Amino acid sequence: MLVALNDHWKVPVGYFLIDSLNGNERASLLEKCFELIYETGIILHSVTFDGVIVNLSMCTALGANFVVGENFKPYIINNMTKENIFCFFDPCHMLKLVRNTLGDKLELRHKGKSIYWQNIVLKKFQETEALQFCSQYVPERFKYPEETALFCSMFNDAFDILNVRSKFCKKKKCNMPLTNENYNKLKTYAGNIIEYIKQFKYYNHLITPDPLLFFTQHTKSQNIKQLQYSTNESILQSNRKTGFLGFIICLTNMFDLFHTLKEKGLKYLLTYKINQDHLETVFSALRSRAGFNDNPNAKQFESSYKRLLVRHEI
């Protein structure tokens, strides 16, 4: 789907009725899409996708390098125009992956301090007994609540930066369009978040049993085993890196994209334009016209799409 950065239109450009494609096959289709878009006179500046690993392989096949370091190259080259096409991960999906990582691993480390999933989950328990139980039986598991609060605040700010919908929105801490006036301010915020993410480490745990499960079952046993750590590695080197890496790539590319757009006369950038909500909205509309069928066949898709076009024209 194409979404205009300097206007208010969006239009689907292709729908592939297949089960799956590998990275090279997707790269070939994307290159063909670039060619067709170029023939219409539209200038393409970015491509957005979710965090499925095959999408990373697709961009790598086209020349991108998502390894954070000296050779970091979060963009691909348009063979027709020789300009950069910046890669963006969908912020909503990245936020979900970050949440799932903390929920599955239960603990992340930042500068030697722990970020605990339980510190977030416990907010659901309003009874004083829950807090008394956890502090009595497993006090080491509920240290550093301020570090967990900082974790939530950082990713909240990152999502705000990447989800600006209007140039007239209330200019809060990070929820503002990217312009010349606030460029340095947002650049500083984004830089702090990127450095914060780079310092994450995570542990693989063997936890027996879970203290919250103990509480819900009203168990009073004091024989709670300590955590056993099996690994201690950078989150960007782990197999759960996608959500964290996605935020780094988005917060890096948005400023480079703004520089490119500014040269073409655009005065501000609304980051909501480069997320995947537009595509999800179209998918939802197509499903609703086919009995909320998640997997329409070619005939059903054609019929639903025609109905959408007619409704739009009317």
From TrEMBL:
Residues 1-63 form the Transposable element P transposase-like RNase H domain. It holds the Pfam family TNP-like_GBD. Residues 129-173 form the Transposable element P transposase-like GTP-binding insertion domain. InterPro entries: TNP-like_GBD (IPR048366), TNP-like_RNaseH_C (IPR048367), TNP-like_RNaseH_N (IPR048365). Residues 272-306 form the Transposable element P transposase-like RNase H C-terminal domain. This is THAP domain-containing protein. It comes from Ooceraea biroi. The lineage of its organism: Eukaryota, Metazoa, Ecdysozoa, Arthropoda, Hexapoda.
